[in-house]
Amino acid sequence: MTPEEIQALFTRSDGDFMFARWGRPIVPIVFGVEDATLATVKGAFEAVVMLAKHSMAETDPELGANCMLFFFREWDELLEVPDLDRLVPDLAPLVSRLKKGGANQYRIFRFDDTGAIRAAFVFLKMDREMSEVPAETLALSQVAQTILLWSDTAFRERSPLAAAGNTTILRPDVAALIRAAYDPVLPPVAQDPSHALRLFARLEHSR
């Protein structure tokens, strides 16, 4: 992966460069799935967090759970979740916009005073397309896209996943970049595109 490719992964559609990683242990909670799928999602979190050499916890002192994943059939179901509108401001207009756009997934991040990620909300509408994706693949894809603040266009053309025989894995270049991004030598937040060069240097260093 070149510095230019790294920079593109954190350059938003409005042209702004924005990099952020989690600044606290991740405490995931999943709504709307059966126990088997719950275990699959938890396993995906454990694998990606271990890759990043970050950490998970049983509870977040501020929020209880700080990474919430919602699986549902219709967007309007979100409006019925108690107190979700307190966690996600302007929830009703957001749901309306996502319905009109035909979206089947959406992620929202919240940040601490330093700009590091403090919480994430992942919404997955299980339409026909989503329902055909194996649970392991769906879980790994969503966790990979939540471990960092990627650009809104980062994986529009190419998935962060790859096939290894009959197994779905993170693309090796994406896995290496996640690992580099959590190097304690690097700051948890950056808004200067030159940060891509620092990430690239950590990639080269870890080879």
Would you kindly provide a brief summary of this structure?
This protein is of the alpha/beta class. It contains eight helices and eight strands.
Topology:
Layout lengths: L2 H7 L9 E2 L7 E4 L3 H18 L14 E6 L11 H4 L3 H11 L3 E7 L5 E9 L2 H4 L3 H10 L16 E4 L2 E4 L1 H10 L7 E2 L4 H12 L1
Parallel strand pairs: 2-3, 3-5
Antiparallel strand pairs: 1-8, 4-5, 6-7
Description of the molecule:
This protein has 8 helices and 8 strands. With 207 residues, the protein is of the alpha/beta class. The chain folds into 2 domains: 1-21 and 159-207, no CATH class; 23-147. A 4-stranded mixed beta sheet has the order 2-3-5-4, with helices on one face. Helix 2 links the parallel strand 2 and strand 3 (67-72). It starts with a helix and ends with a helix. 28% of the residues are buried. The mean pLDDT is 94.
Strands, total number? 8
Can you count the helices? 8
Which blocks of ≥5 consecutive residues have pLDDT under 50? none
Strand-residue proportion: 15-25%
* Global mean pLDDT: 94
First-to-last CA distance: 12 Å
- Tell me the domain tally: 2
**Overall geometry:** globular
Spatial extent as radius of gyration: 17 Å
**Element order: H for helix, E for strand:** HEEHEHHEEHHEEHEH
- What spatial order of strands do you see in the largest sheet? 2-3-5-4
Largest sheet: 4 strands, mixed
Structural class: alpha/beta
**Helix proportion range:** 25-40%
Quickly list its features:
207 residues, alpha/beta, 2 domains, 4-stranded mixed beta sheet, two-stranded antiparallel ribbon, 8 helices, 18% strand, globular
